[in-house]
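Exercise: predict the fold of this chain.
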Amino acid sequence: MPRTIFENIVIQRYEAATALAFCQYTPIRFFEILHIEKGSGTIIINNHKVNYSDNQLFILIPNDQYNLEIETPTTVSAIKFLNSFFNNSSLDENESQRKEWFRRIETILHSANRTSHLNLKYTIDQSSLHALFTVLCNEFNAENLKNEVVLRSTLHTILHIISRNVNFISSKTSSSKIQDIINYIHYYIHDSERLTKKELANQFYISENYISQFFKSKMNIGLKKYILNYKLKLAETRLKYTDLTVTQIAQELGFTDSSHLDKTFLTYKGITAKMYKKT
């Protein structure tokens, strides 16, 4: 019988807390979303202090250590994806969902500023996330409920809303065409056909002969190299935190084969993908 998709996800909620105990899951946590619903104080992330207040989101990754110095009673929810959640490549009914969530999480991981709270581009999403976190925590922590269909759809919606609110470059250009191009590249990074110069030119109404020049003038890096660098970032994350093989990673990220990924990784990182995974 396949395991449930929530077997290695921890969902916690603290109502009007004045202190929070050390979390036992931090050393084995791959990714965490912290939602401050109400309250004020300071969150210390890796010795960096940030003031927090109502309706704020914080994103944390494996090596991040944090604690809250609470000034006023704080209601906070936490979603923790444990390392073991993504270290399963069995083809059960939940595998496609795990892959989709991993892609959403990758989007957030490689773009969110983790030294501050996440600024939502769409203010209406604040109230939506507030409601969704309440539903998720209530459903997860009530033993007589805990319906996986409700949990799955609610968490999927939370990840989708957060990922669409992430800016990939400076907020100074968040409304510009280059921001839209970067967002598009990150969203379709697993679909090479959508990332050709012709497709990008058609999508953003820029001449196919000019789009590379336009991209480099705004980003100080060539379009092709930017796409490759981002793919290598994703490959590094997958090599480090999942049990996907080099062949599987190469296939998902559009490399010809594992040898192609190995050679590219060696050129840019000084070590092959296979050796990186072993170490």
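Check your answer against the key: The two ends are 33 Å apart (CA to CA).
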